[in-house]
Design brief:
Elements (H helix, E strand, L loop, with lengths): L6 E9 L3 H11 L3 E7 L2 H11 L3 E5 L7 H9 L6 E6 L4 H9 L4 E4 L4 H18 L2 E5 L2 E4 L4 E4 L2 E3 L3 H12 L7 H8 L10 H12 L8 E3 L3 E3 L6
Helix pairs in contact: 2-3
Length: 232
């Protein structure tokens, strides 16, 4: 059964010629990740990589048509960013040295420890999210700081100009309370003739909340408003 906090913004490609292990990894990782691709050989994996550009690749070292390290070598000719994990049935010094040269995240010896793999993938997920300049407000809602856009399940939540400004302010210092006056001054900084009204800010946020998942903007009674990101 899948968890409620399924990760839908990070994609994983599994390249494994052993059908039983391939299906096990797929079923196990689908408990946590929505976007899982599978390949039966290095050639198929490379074709999927070109089409889907997965965030993480988990590949066996020995596969037909194109072995794992050769496949990774092809990827590394133009891509040094994709996180790649290599699996091997035994520890081979020469192959391990070559794997290091290919800037792999991990070199895992079979049999694969599921919990260890999960921990590695969750750590990579967190690093990828940071590198993508995202602030996660719950398991499937995030604020993209670069594009100044709010997403839910990778679908944009369309906000008006002042609503975007509010998120920009609240996400600039997460966990910090902003008073109604601070919010008013930020939203209307170009309108010096506009008088402060706490009621206008309260009404503005109330209308905005209708568009948003519950409790995204938190109200600290008598103090102001804040956003609290989750640690993923």
């Amino acid at each position: 059964m899948k968890t409620n906090n399924i990760i839908n913004d990070i994609s994983i490609l599994i390249a494994e010629d052993e059908s039983e292990l391939r299906e096990y990894l797929k079923e196990y990782l689908e408990l946590f990740f929505k976007n899982i691709f599978i390949a039966k050989c290095g050639k198929e994996a490379y074709e999927i990589y070109l089409q889907k550009k997965p965030d993480i690749i988990i590949s066996d070292i020995n596969m037909p048509n194109l072995d794992g390290l050769s496949m990774v070598q092809q990827i590394r000719e133009s891509d040094n960013e994709t996180n790649i994990i290599i699996m091997s049935a035994h520890s081979d010094r020469d192959k391990l040295l070559k794997a290091v040269e290919l800037r792999l995240v991990k070199y895992l010896i079979k049999p694969i420890n599921s919990q260890n793999l999960k921990d590695i993938l969750f750590e990579l997920t967190q690093k990828l999210r940071i590198s993508k300049k995202r602030i996660y407000l719950n398991s499937n809602v995030y604020w993209d700081k670069v594009s100044r856009t709010l997403f839910q399940n990778d679908e944009q939540i369309y906000l008006k100009e002042k609503e975007l400004l509010l998120f920009q302010l609240l996400c600039s210092k997460t966990n910090q309370i902003f008073t109604a006056k601070e919010i008013f001054e930020y939203l209307y900084k170009d309108q010096n003739n506009k008088d402060f009204s706490e009621y206008s800010i309260t009404s503005f946020i109330k209308r905005l909340r209708v568009k948003l998942p519950q409790n995204l903007i938190q109200n600290e009674y008598g103090a102001g408003y804040k956003i609290t990101p989750i640690n993923k």
